[in-house]
Amino acid sequence: xxxxxxxxxxxxLACFTLAMLLDLVRLLKGPxxxxxVLALDTLYIxxxxxxxxxxxxxxxxxxxDIALLxxxxxxxxxxxxxxxxxxxxxxEP
Amino acid sequence: xxxxxxxxxxxxxxxxxxxxxxxxxxxxxxGLLRLKSYFARTHAPTLGGTLGAGCVLTASMLxxxxxxxxxxxxxxxxxxxxxxxxxxxxxxxxxxAILREKKPPGPPD
Lengths: 93, 109
What we know:
Shape of chain B: elongated
Distance between the termini of chain A: 61 Å
Number of helices of chain B: 4
Shape of chain A: elongated
Order of helices and strands of chain B: HHHH
Order of helices and strands of chain A: HHH
Radius of gyration of chain A: 16 Å
Strand content of chain A: under 5%
Number of domains of chain B: 1
Structural class of chain A: mainly alpha
Distance between the termini of chain B: 65 Å
Number of helices of chain A: 3
Oligomer: heterodimer
Number of strands of chain B: 0
Number of strands of chain A: 0
CATH architecture of chain A: Orthogonal Bundle
């Protein structure tokens, strides 16, 4: 009926893909380790938004669970890497 | 069940919010790529991480509410989670960067 929302979904998908490519370039050429961890953090947030946009585009509720899982495990991974950079080990005795 | 079936009152703001979220996210990633030092670079992705994520999550809430014909607010879970956990990672990374930058140059001991 209305073509506005599918067009916006396509535009947002292109934007998130381009943003993930830019994050990937920073991840590959980052001068220090903290740059790479920051790029990985941005990469998982952009991927989560991409999955949510796909969920709007297909009109399915399944993508919500995938996005929630990506947010959860991305936070755990980024925090573990940052803690490793800060203290030298992740779980201290 | 496709995005063509979303009624106009939900499709119009959802489309606007999706376009805003995509542009904000790409601005944040461009800043992450282009800025000079780490401490300037750590500011840029927060734009896409908070405002862009809020825009897309609100758009998803509007679209699924318009499809179901009743308020669907379970996407708020992701919003709350992202808003709570983004500063934690940011602060840990900044402290790690300060620790690693402060090391005096010289031969390793």
